[in-house]
Amino acid sequence: MFRVTPLFWIGVILAQILLLALFVYDYRISIVLVAGIVAVTVMLDRPIWAVGFMLGARISSTATTSFFTIGKVSVGMFEPVLLFTLIALTFKAVLVQKRLIRWWPWQPVYLAYFAWSSLGLLWCTKFSDGLKDIIGLCVILATNLVIICFIETWEDVKLMLWFWIITCATIGVLSMFGDKLGLTSYASMWKASAGGGRETGLGQQPNWYAMNLMFVIHSCGGFALIQKRPIVRWGLMLTTVWIFLSMMTSGSRGGAYSIVIGGFLAALGQPRFRAWFVGFAAVGIGLFALAYVGDLGDLDKGLDRISLNLGVLFTQDIRGMNWAACIGMFWDTHGIGIGPGGYIDNLQKYSDWLYHSVYRYPHGIFWGEVAHHGVIGVILLFGIVLSVTLMARDVIKYTKGTEAEVLAWSMPASMAGYFAWSFVEFNFDEKPFWEWLGLYTALYFVARRSWEAREKGLPGDIPKWTLNL
């Protein structure tokens, strides 16, 4: 039986760094290597590894590093890996007669949203823009189907979390040192970072870069607590701090707030988390103090932007102008919405300046739904939020007293922070939120099976553990 050792994880880290570096040099080399890895994974009948590479590609891929487009859809590292994992899923289903159709708690509401969005193609402003949005919704269904069907045990969940943590830590390394080593030079591509002091990861707008790293921070720290080997436990703790510092180099105020909001909500629900939250807050305050008195390079600039501009988030007129345009589109369509896509094409009617600027998007998922899908879209959006909340309640119940209890709290804590942040940034189909939700949904099924086994007096799949230790 294959044994996972520290040397194996070092190899995974080096492989990801090599693939990302080769992608910058010549994307075709990376595609061939990734395709080969996935093909070997399928032949070895371990499709769970294909899911891990899919998650890694999803987190690290950006529109800036895409190598061609089909219509208005960018194709980068993620799309070929998704295709291969879908093939692996079909291959697995044929061999072992695996059932591919599966229902999960938030799926009915999501399918209702998908149907309403697709219906909106009948009245959308530009069919090609609307179709691009629908394709994005199809990708969400495909990735979640892969994640939920392949991840079947607690060991699978932990393995995918390792892939996620290693990918985010690697992106942080490349972001902090890529420019200095001459490997990357993406800052000039975004107006928000053109003046320096705001990292972009592998070419993302700084706020999106922060959001990409934000999801795993709470869970990386929590995951460390259930590790039996001290070197692994402390390594994960240091990795948590590293990913947090990497996120702070983006200078994203929303990113900082989302971490605090997520941690605060988890602390309200779980007494043990309150002590951890206080400790994490002390570390954060210490970092801001160092930034104030010292020179920490890009980290110093990012922390300064967050700490010295706390009131700027809503004082600038850009967000308000976009929100006013969204409301205008809502009223002018009698609450039905303009349909998928088309925001930019309709924007000139409400603000010619915004239309010719780089700020022409709704600046918030809620506001995007108001403009695109009207009353029904907003209702379905909050329906998804409610169904995920109820699922999280069940996961917490199923994992009580087990190793997974930490993740049962920390994963929705990140989603709660993202939800608060989403009122001022992002689009509905943003990655990696949906992949994170897919992983949490897989945990829901694993935890439920383990809980049902324990109720029958049988040993569950998830080992016992307590947050009170």
Shape from CA axes? globular
Strand content: under 5%
Rg over CA atoms, rounded to whole Å, is: 22 Å
Write down the overall mean pLDDT: 79
Which stretches of 5+ consecutive residues score pLDDT under 50? 310-315
Strand ordering within the main sheet? 1-2
Looking at this protein, list some descriptive labels.
mainly alpha; 469 residues
General description of the model:
This protein has two domains: 1-101, no CATH class; 103-455, no CATH class. It has 19 helices and two strands. The chain has helices at 6-25, 27-43, 47-60, 78-96, 107-119, 127-150, 154-178, 206-225, 230-248, 253-269, 271-293, 298-308, 317-332, 343-347, 352-355, 365-372, 374-398, 405-421, 433-455, and strands at residues 68-70, 73-75. A hairpin with a 2-residue loop joins β1 (68-70) and β2. Residues 310-315 have low confidence and may be disordered.
Short characterization:
The protein is mainly α and 469 residues long. The chain contains 19 helices and 2 strands.
Question: Topology, pairings included?
Answer:
Elements: H1 6-25, H2 27-43, H3 47-60, E1 68-70, E2 73-75, H4 78-96, H5 107-119, H6 127-150, H7 154-178, H8 206-225, H9 230-248, H10 253-269, H11 271-293, H12 298-308, H13 317-332, H14 343-347, H15 352-355, H16 365-372, H17 374-398, H18 405-421, H19 433-455
Antiparallel strand pairs: 1-2
